[in-house]
Prior knowledge:
alpha/beta; five-stranded parallel beta sheet
Amino acid sequence: MTETFTIAIDGPAAAGKGTISKAVAARLGFAHLDTGLLYRAVGAKTLTGTDPIVAAQSLQPEDLDGTDLRTPGVAQAASKVAVIPEVRAALVDFQRAFARRAGGAVLDGRDIGTVICPDADVKLFVTASAEVRAERRYQELADKGMDVTRDEVLADVKARDDRDMNRAEAPLKPAMDAVLIDTSDLSIEAALEAALKEIVSRR
């Protein structure tokens, strides 16, 4: 496959969009970009004192490889820098170039279908209740040995939702033509099949 085919997958934290996106890309042989990692990498740089705009403008591919990008502190920092218009602008070109690569691309994030790739061939919005998402994230962090409580994780999820959905620049919301997949009561396999069914119908 040499032509482009872009799949945009958006949704709030811990809804399952990353898991679905990776699986879809693997199944179809497409390239995958977790755009949230871009913001996490910028956020991580700010925690060491770097100006967020400078961090975004100087971001390198190797900055996305850090194992510390999945910590709650980096997640909060990422959500904070994501509201800065200059940071978002610095990362837009990178994402759009990735989306146009030959062979197909799957991008997941918060504003892929609405801002980054409004003409994507398929747009999915993956969501779940805040309580379900918080429990998933709690289990993920607890499995890594992190000392967190369920209440702390739920508060963190709700705070990120509020910041992401109410920011002035590219707020988190489904694209008008996005297909909604609620994973609250779905297994990973069922959610993946729902996504693939929609994608296959568009190819």
